[in-house]
Amino acid sequence: MLLDEIIAILSDEKGTLNSALLKTKVLMHSLGKKDLTTWVTNELKGYPDENVPEYRMIGASVHGHVINMTMQIRDYTLPILHLSKERQQSLTHFACQLSIDSVEESVKRHREKGQKLARPLPTEFGGLFKEVLTSDTNVVSAWCEVNMIEVENILAEVRSRLLDFVLELRDVVGIDVPEKDLAAKAAVADTEKMFATSIYGNSNTIIIASQGIQTITNRKDDIEGLIAAVGKLGFTQRDLEDFKQAVLEDRSEGKTPDVSEGKTGKWFIKALKETGKGVMKTGVDVVSSVIVKALKAYTGTP
User: Fold this and answer.
1) CB 42 within 8 A of CB 87
2) Is the pTM of this model over 0.70?
3) What is the pLDDT of residues 20-46, one digit of tens each?
């Protein structure tokens, strides 16, 4: 069974994430959930811009080839504390947009040959360090050397998140379910919520393919902030009014507004169905994740 094959690959340290993600994409289509593949596609093909998940933001240190009248150092850690905070941030933080296959290959080369990922800096950047080096020292070339431990962590995060999802899905559909029965079995589960929780976790930043990001910033008990956060998804004013009413009615009845129950839950299911019909500009995975996180922020739920 496809689901078991994915679990087997993810459970084996020698199994490639590229293979697991490809099979996951097939699985989503067979379940009729192809709108949940935004994250899978980005991991497979690489991210189109620097709007990457938090686990793909990795550190780097600035190195250079320096030379003066008495010495030459081909790999010298350059000082950066004299630079502005913004400049330091741009040099020491790196958004890894590489495909998961390229990340795996980079980690393999590092383990076997000690090779590291590096981002070369333009020649003119050498002048940035002139004032803190001796007067006769020149920076021939400079680069940002990526922290390979954090690159390896990308693989761990993707493997762990995807494994959480497929294991939870298997708990719902059961073991050794025939392929022809898989979609029907999965239909009883809240696959969208399951996927959003496993993949996006507690991060408040939602990746929306190449359209950018949405950061959840509403606070506890701030109903207008909640509506504003969900409103960015493109819901009509009528939909948002219904959402607000559902949340307030659940609160008045002593219930915690949640996507799995109460009037809020009913609104959520209706919203996902509309999204699945192509009414919204974003996919079900994004809509589901944003609503879940916004509600957690509103209710103060961890």
Assistant:
1) no
2) no
3) 999 999 998 888 887 778 899 999 999
